[in-house]
Design brief:
- The complex is a heterotrimer of chains A (about 300), B (about 230) and C (about 325).
- Chain A is about 70% helix and about 0% strand.
- Chain A is an all-alpha fold.
- Chain B has about 230 residues and is of the alpha/beta class.
- Chain B has two domains: about 15-95 and about 175-230, P-loop containing nucleotide triphosphate hydrolases (Rossmann fold), CATH 3.40.50; about 105-170, no CATH class.
- In chain B, the strands form two sheets. Chain B has a six-stranded parallel beta sheet with strand order 1-10-4-9-8-7, with helices on both faces. In chain B, strands 3-2-5-6 form a four-stranded antiparallel beta sheet, covered by helices on one side.
- In chain C, the strands form two sheets. In chain C, strands 6-7-8-3-9-10-12-11 form an eight-stranded mixed beta sheet, with helices on both faces. A four-stranded antiparallel beta sheet of chain C has the order 2-1-4-5, with helices on one face.
- With about 325 residues, chain C is α/β, with parallel strands linked by helices.
- Classes of the chains: A mainly alpha (about 300), B alpha/beta (about 230), C alpha/beta (about 325).
- Chains in contact: A-B, A-C, B-C.
- Chain B: This is Peptide/nickel transport system ATP-binding protein.
- Chain B: Belongs to the ABC transporter superfamily.
- Chain B: It holds the Pfam family ABC_tran.
């Protein structure tokens, strides 16, 4: 029977939580550990590590991992482990700021479309559809090409291509909230347009918006990596994961796999951990998963 | 109790909330077709009709929440143009509406006290004024201070509907529209809600619209019953 | 039709025997007493209505019997189900897997509260119904005919069966949801507020469906706040107050001569009776008084009410009150 066989919004009361829940908790624990370790290493690396990440030492190029160089050195003799941590710092910073830019742009467009509705809404949504029809990366490359290369260009490129989903989320949330009887009740009680928006609509949208932003960070980090890998991102002297993978591919053929694999794996681990945690958060926001008390 | 299908006998009497040849369509489907209804101050008009006959839509039109496609609403003989935010707050607050499901009619983030005070705060009352009036109303509808501090998910449907009733009365409306407002409530809470409304009506001579499927409730509460034909 | 509330001697033939069922919800800093020491028996062909005000715990009872409670709930007591053609099962102790495979839908059907949200929107009524039938042993060839038959049973036109849930009116959706619950032919049906939001003809139709189901041998547990609905179809009515059954007796007896002051108060609140509310407020389920939970609102309360009254046989029914209204059989 359909309505009985639905996945348990409410799970049985008796003994222990089901396996799925325990696995989820374990995953979240691992994710927290990975993130905490990565962030701590990024912040503390300059203090604890006696090496300079950009120090070129042509006498010690492409050294295999050893106690001196935990992840070996690259083709310019730079320490890969240390440089990866610096790279991660830059990548996460770019990812977070770019996600913030995308959220502000998307949030504003979505709020205007969802609140005012009508012709303006239709026009804005056609713009969203048009931009969404273009390949992200191509558009990103175009934006970078238009601006002076550097950190700002990369952030702009990501911010301007990633706001679409945020705009759609905010708009649809607002549209569905607007028809709810509690908004009718507020209007009937004399609330102004502004008060309905600030007091009754936005507080419901903000958690979703925050979630969308967090989910976007890993995406933005990968976008930055892709741009840098193509040589269109950050300047080569700046350690970023994308630059390192790009540099490292030259060493791959000579057998020095560590120069691109190590930063790559670090990026995978950190973005995966972020995605796992935001996934858990989303589950908690979802009223179907949240155990509710019906009396 | 008199049953009338034709409402014109009450005419455009000076006082009252009225729908005049109101038509509402969603897409091609006509939900209301040139409907007339008049609620005089002090009377309780029972509105009957099958599911889908547009009772709730008519209530929303009368509550100034939905502009009819043709026809209009009049208050005290003056036609009202538009609905929702096109109208000044002072006009909107003259008509209050009580919905069937208190759950969907309340913002889950606000405590019951904030829910009741919200219309006052929205129209510029100070925190002290609002909380004093909230306390009075809570007492009237039978909500204890302990309940007022709770959020909707921590109270029962009956308690939440009491809070909605308090919120509806907060601006001392001239008209109160009850759209199946007691359908989800047990007999005791229903009788209490009816008693509070009737008492308010006696003191303020407000007009009440009562939409209900329950014939016993209709004949006990309504002073006049109108049948809404299915379009 | 059962005319007396079954006593222990008939328990052997019972379909459902609930014994000492207690449900607690653990919240931060509080315990919700949702169901307390609830016992009842249900026989094939019997329609039992559980009535009470919102928040008295009656809905939790249905969820507990289906094992659909949130994680912060603890359940104690027993609920033995004896399906006529299957193994007896304790609904409280059975594992999730057993409940899914053998109990929910098959042995215990649920008529949901809001059919509009309980129906999968992307399948037509016919597909929903045929899927359900095939999941319960009908062959691919036999399913369509059976679907038509069941649809006709609940008063649904075979043509309407081909529509999608959003194309159905509230009443048709309710009939479809009922048809889905009836399709596996479960010996026990739980109906949790099945008539909320329906207009009178549809309420009556839904209730009559449940009644007919009983008359063909199933048992129905109807949970409702609507006394008029209970009166129309129930064999016996159990009144719940503050997590406990306070009175349980044959329908006519309950409505004509209630023994518990709360039942009397609830009946007096009906619009075709005195239309006066029960004075006072129900207690918080997180903070129940030690003695009789109704005593603070009760016109007959005395010092004796500090001792919690037990649910004891009284004439043809059971009452939990030290000062019952009718001179029933001695406790």
């Amino acid at each position: 029977m359909t309505d009985l066989a639905r996945p348990p919004a409410t799970t049985p009361a008796r003994t222990h939580p089901p396996t799925r829940v325990r696995a989820g908790r374990l995953g979240a624990g691992v994710a927290v550990g990975v993130l905490a370790a990565a962030v701590a290493a990024c912040l503390l690396a300059p203090l604890l590590w006696p090496l300079d990440q950009s120090a070129v030492d042509l006498a010690r190029t492409r050294l295999a991992p050893s106690p001196d160089h935990l992840a070996g050195t690259d083709d310019l003799g730079r320490d890969v482990a240390l440089r990866s941590l610096y790279g991660l710092r830059v990548s996460l910073l770019v990812g977070a700021v770019a996600a913030g830019v995308a959220t502000v742009v998307g949030g504003l467009v979505g709020a205007v479309a969802g609140t005012l509705g009508g012709r303006l809404d239709r026009a804005l949504m056609r713009v969203v559809d048009t931009v969404a029809a273009l390949p992200h990366l191509l558009l990103g490359i175009f934006v970078v090409a238009m601006l002076r290369p550097g950190l700002g260009a990369v952030i702009a490129s990501i911010g301007l291509t990633h706001w679409l989903s945020t705009a759609r989320i905010v708009r649809s949330e607002l549209l569905s909230l607007r028809t709810r009887p509690f908004v009718d009740a507020a209007i009937s009680g004399g609330a102004s347009r502004t008060r309905v928006l600030t007091r009754h609509l936005l507080p419901h949208v903000l958690p979703r918006l925050a979630l969308a932003t967090t989910l976007m960070v890993p995406h933005a980090v990968w976008h930055e990596t892709a741009l840098s890998f193509l040589g269109l991102g950050l300047p080569p002297h700046l350690a970023s994961i994308g630059n390192m993978i790009n540099d490292g591919q030259r060493s791959l053929l000579t057998g020095a796999w560590w120069a691109s694999i190590v930063p790559g794996l670090l990026l995978v681990a950190v973005t995966l951990a972020l995605a796992v945690l935001t996934g858990r958060w989303r589950d908690r926001l979802d009223p179907r998963v949240r155990a509710e008390l019906h009396l | 109790m008199t049953v009338t299908t034709d409402d014109t006998v009450h005419g455009a009497a000076a006082g009252g909330l009225a729908a005049r040849r109101v038509t509402v369509a969603y897409g091609r489907q006509r939900v209301l077709d040139r409907v007339d209804l008049h609620i005089a101050p002090g009377e309780t008009v029972g509105l009957r009709g099958l599911s889908g006959s547009g009772k709730s839509t008519l209530a929303r039109v009368l509550a100034l929440l939905h502009a009819p496609d043709s026809g209009h609403v009049t208050i005290d003989g003056h036609p009202v143009g538009g609905a929702r935010h096109r109208l000044p707050a002072a006009l909107r607050t003259r008509v209050a509406i009580l919905f069937q499901s208190p759950r969907s009619a309340t913002d889950p983030r606000l405590s019951l006290a904030d829910l009741i005070a919200e219309p006052l705060r929205a129209t510029g009352a100070s925190r002290d004024q609002a909380s004093a009036r909230t306390a009075d109303l809570a007492d009237l509808v039978g909500l204890t201070p302990d309940l007022l501090a709770r959020r909707p998910h921590a109270v029962s449907d009956g308690q939440l509907q009491r809070a909605c009733l308090a919120r509806a009365l907060v601006h001392r409306p001239d008209y109160l529209l009850c759209d199946e407002a007691t359908a989800m409530l047990d007999a005791s809470t229903q009788a209490h809600v009816a008693a509070v409304v009737t008492d308010y009506q006696r003191r303020s001579s407000a007009g009440v619209l009562l939409i209900t499927h329950d014939p016993a409730l209709m004949s006990r509460w309504a002073t006049r019953v109108v049948d809404l034909p299915t379009p | 039709m059962t005319t007396t509330v079954p006593t222990d001697t008939r328990r052997a033939h019972a379909l459902l025997g609930v014994d000492g069922l207690t449900v607690r919800f653990h919240l931060r800093g509080a315990v919700v007493h949702a169901v307390t020491d609830l016992s009842l028996t249900l026989h094939p062909g019997e329609l039992l209505a559980v009535v009470g005000e919102s928040g008295c715990g009656k809905s939790v009872l249905a969820h507990a019997l289906l094992g659909l409670l949130p994680r912060n709930a603890t359940v104690t007591g027993r609920a033995h189900l004896h399906p006529p053609d299957g193994h007896p099962v304790d609904l409280i102790d059975a594992g999730e897997r057993h409940l899914t495979r053998h109990v929910r839908g098959r042995a215990v059907g649920l008529v949901p509260q809001s059919p509009a949200t309980a129906l999968t929107p992307v399948r037509s009524g016919r597909r929903l119904l045929e899927e359900t039938l095939r999941a319960h042993g009908h062959t691919r060839r036999a399913a369509p005919a059976a679907a038509d038959r069941i649809a006709a049973d609940v008063g649904l036109d075979p043509g309407d069966l081909d529509r999608y849930p959003h194309e159905l009116s509230g009443g048709m959706a309710q009939r479809l949801a009922t048809a889905l619950a009836l399709a596996p032919d479960p010996p026990l049906l739980l109906a949790d507020e099945p008539t909320t939001g329906l207009d009178r003809p549809l309420v009556d139709h839904t209730l009559d469906l449940l009644r007919r189901r009983c008359d063909t041998g199933a048992a129905v547990l109807l949970i409702t706040h609507d006394l008029t609905a209970a009166r129309r179809v129930a064999d016996t009515v159990a009144v719940m107050y503050a997590s406990r059954i306070v009175e349980h007796r044959p329908t006519a007896a309950l409505f004509d001569a209630p023994a518990h002051p709360y039942t009397a108060g609830l009946l007096d609140a009906l619009p075709d009776r005195a239309f006066t509310p029960v004075p006072g407020h129900p207690p918080m389920l997180t903070d129940l008084p030690d003695g009789c939970a109704f005593a603070p609102r009760c016109p007959r309360a005395t010092d004796a009410c500090h001792i919690p009254p037990r649910l004891l046989p009284d004439g043809a029914g059971r009452v939990a009150c030290h000062h019952r209204l009718t001179p029933g059989a001695p406790a």
